[in-house]
Amino acid sequence: MTMRNSPYAGQAGQSSQQQASQQPSAQPSQDQRLEQELAQLRAEYEKLKMERVRTEQNLANLSQQLREMEERAQAEYGTADPADLERLLAERRAENARLVEDYRKHIEAIRADLSAVERGVEDGR
Fold it and tell me: Quick one: where's region Disordered (predicted)?
């Protein structure tokens, strides 16, 4: 069998690039899959990039709010330390509870005095 009669006779003079373009159809589908994956990865990258920007903006806003609250706490309570603020809050709650108890006792005393006056009025009739 001569080269002309061989099934490969037409390919003998072709470049490797031409031969590669004549590879089975599995290669283009692999290329398409890679292109799809690359497109998906690029889209995910852009999404993550935007999310990072939003997160950085949120962090900056929250940091500013924290600074403002610390300044306000320092001005109003003399401290911005969370432990000190918790202690002050506990003290103020205890004071409020004591004041409410004192007020309740005061109201009970007024009721008792009023009842005594009403009994005296009724006894005097």
Answer: 1-35
Return the pLDDT at 23: 53
| Residue 118 structural domain | 81-125
Within a domain: 12: no
Q: Are residues 54 and 33 in the same domain?
A: yes
Q: Looking at the domain assignment, is residue 116 inside a domain?
A: yes
Q: Who's near 19: CB < 8 A, 6+ residues apart?
A: 11
Same domain, yes or no, for 67 and 97?
A: no
Let me know if residue 33 belongs to a domain.
yes
Q: For residues 1 and 78, what is the distance between their CA atoms, to the nearest angstrom?
A: 103
Q: Is the pLDDT of residue 16 over 80?
A: no
Cα angle: 119, vertex 120, 121; to 5 degrees: 90
The rounded distance, in Å, linking the Cα atoms of 105 and 111 is 10
pLDDT at residue 63 is higher than 70: yes
Q: At 38, which amino acid appears? A: L
